[in-house]
Design a protein that fits this description.
The complex is a heterodimer. Chain A has 8 helices and no strands. Chain A is an all-alpha fold. Chain A is globular, with a radius of gyration of 21 Å. In chain A, about 35% of the residues are buried. In chain B, strand 12 and strand 13 (about 250-255) form a beta hairpin. The chains are: A mainly alpha, B alpha/beta. The interface of A and B includes residues 18, 63, 64 and 72 of A.
């Protein structure tokens, strides 16, 4: 575990100088907007998490990190595992930050200083500040979707190479969309039994529980992706 | 004498190249020049030592430890300098130090910054903007800061200007003053090897052509010149890289074979550079140069 933590720290320090300004800018812009217009805008801060992940591979390729990895006293499998845990932790940290900022925005209710309080638009703004459920849902959803996409991209990129990553992701998305359409069509025509989507929890506490469960699931998925990738890469040379 | 590095029967095959039973050892307290033409297998051997390449057979022992099973322990005590920088180019020296320090138990930050100062490296400039010589010095500073007992350098002087090369060799010479250390120095610039190496291993087409002390190598071979007609028949087969031209010939020969040489033929001690050139020439003439290896 110590090796994994060292590599995660290494990855963070690699990305930090490139990511800190864009990430803070994104966070400030969306937090600023959320303060006045809707706390759920905080969920867009997840875009800021991207800049802590995306540059890593480009830097690794440009700077010949495969050589560095060959000289560091760390197992190669742990280098791979660390990257996936890093992706999870970056998204998790951003999710927590978003929750805190959203709570702050909801407490401050700064929309009250805006003009035309009685307009239809302002009524919608006001409602968004009262809809804690939707805000939570957006934050948890953004975390889950982005964390899943980035860990999957990382796995595909490491296994099949960065040049094939985009192609493979497009194929995956195409196949998944196709399957979903076929599934829904069959279900709609009652060729297969109708699928009822599980309803989301009706309370904030329920949603928080769902969020916690999704965090655990995503952590598990990242760990599994890490293991699969480490296993695939073990056969290759640095 | 205890060996700091020992390679025995190392075999490694790729589609278009293979290392064939490479064996050599480096005793503690010495510098070994690891030479050979491009593509002779120097980098593959180094990658095998670092467990970056998976060996097909043979064994590699560093500090008496197995390079595969004890690779983590070995790398704690090993410094590596490649021909190009392998650090994040957008970071400066301070950020690099922050990044690397947790990986080594014996990391000494004071020593690192002392070396950085000594090597005249700017602390706040991106390392990607460093000159090649500065990048080499940075990698050496890293190796010295975690008290590496063995430094492996893969073509560190190629592309360096003479002043930077000289500085680098001085650093290595100073490093080896501690007799518990060792340096394996791969290069095709044989002048560097002649200057600082105690031992030489010549790799040719994936095989060890020579391994031993530098002095023994240079004393074992001579360049012979003269008229082709003066070569005794028994000697002709022993010539390495024989090259005939209009007014005569030249070739490499083992000094042991010089006995009974006619006075009409001239010879002089061969330099490492000349030895490498004649080995290559021998290949071009499709004669088996391995028969001539020491």
């Amino acid at each position: 575990m110590r090796e994994i933590l060292k590599i995660m720290r290494f990855d963070f320090l690699t990305a930090r100088p490139l990511a800190i300004i864009p990430a803070v800018t994104v966070a400030l812009i969306f937090f600023g907007l959320s303060l006045f217009f809707a706390p759920l805008i905080c969920s867009y801060i997840t875009f800021g998490a991207m800049v802590f992940v995306i540059p890593l591979q480009a830097v690794a390729d440009k700077s010949g990190f495969h050589k560095l990895y060959g000289t560091l006293p760390v197992r190669r499998s742990n280098i791979t595992r660390a990257r996936f845990l890093y992706i999870f932790l970056v998204h998790f940290a951003v999710e927590i930050l978003e929750l805190l900022l959203a709570v702050t925005a909801m407490s401050l209710k700064l929309y009250r200083v805006l003009p035309n309080q009685n307009s239809e638009m302002m009524q919608m703004v006001k409602e968004s500040f009262e809809d804690t459920r939707l805000t939570l849902l957006m934050i948890i959803g953004a975390f889950t979707v982005f964390c899943l996409i980035f860990s999957y991209m990382e796995m595909m990129g490491q296994i099949y190479g960065r040049e094939n990553e985009f192609k493979i992701i497009m194929i995956t998305l195409g196949v998944l969309t196709g399957l979903l359409i076929v599934f829904l069509t069959l279900s709609d025509h009652e060729i297969i039994p109708k699928i009822h989507m599980p309803s989301l929890p009706g309370t904030v506490q329920g949603l928080l529980l769902l969020g916690a469960a999704l965090n655990i699931v995503m952590c598990g998925i990242c760990l599994i992706f890490g293991e699969i990738t480490a296993h695939k890469l073990a056969k290759r040379e640095l | 004498m205890e060996n700091i590095l020992e390679i025995s029967g190392l075999c490694k095959s790729y589609d278009d190249f293979s290392l064939k039973s490479v064996s050599f050892s480096l005793p503690r307290g010495f510098i070994m020049g690891f030479v050979g033409e491009n593509g002779s297998g120097k980098t593959t051997t180094i990658r095998s030592i670092l467990n970056m390449a998976k060996i097909d057979s043979g064994s590699i022992s560093v500090f008496g430890l197995d390079s595969v099973t004890d690779t983590i322990t070995i790398k704690e005590r090993l410094g590596v300098v490649f021909d190009s920088l392998y650090l994040a180019e957008h970071l400066n020296v301070r950020q690099i130090e922050q990044q690397l320090k947790p990986f080594y138990k014996d990391w000494d930050s004071k020593e690192f910054f002392r070396r950085i100062k000594e090597f005249d490296l700017p602390e706040n400039r991106k390392v990607g903007d460093f000159s090649k010589g500065m990048k080499m010095k940075l990698m050496i500073a890293i190796a010295l800061s975690h008290k590496a007992e063995l430094i492996i350098l893969d073509e560190p002087t190629s592309g360096l200007d003479p002043v930077a090369r000289d500085e680098l060799l001085d650093i290595l010479a100073e490093y080896i003053e501690d007799e518990n250390r060792g340096v394996l120095f791969s290069t095709h610039i044989t002048a560097d090897v002649e200057r600082i190496a105690d031992y030489v291993t010549i790799l040719h087409s994936g095989k060890v052509w020579y391994t031993g002390t530098k002095d023994e190598l240079t004393e074992s071979y001579a360049v012979i010149k003269g008229a082709e007609k003066d070569i005794p028949a028994a000697l002709k087969e022993k010539l390495i890289g024989f090259h005939a031209y209009r007014n005569g010939f030249d070739a490499l020969i083992k000094t042991d074979d010089l006995f009974g040489l006619p006075n009409t033929l001239e010879y002089e001690k061969a330099s490492i550079d000349e030895i490498l050139v004649y080995i290559a020439k021998e290949d071009k003439h499709e004669r088996n140069s391995e028969d001539h290896a020491v």
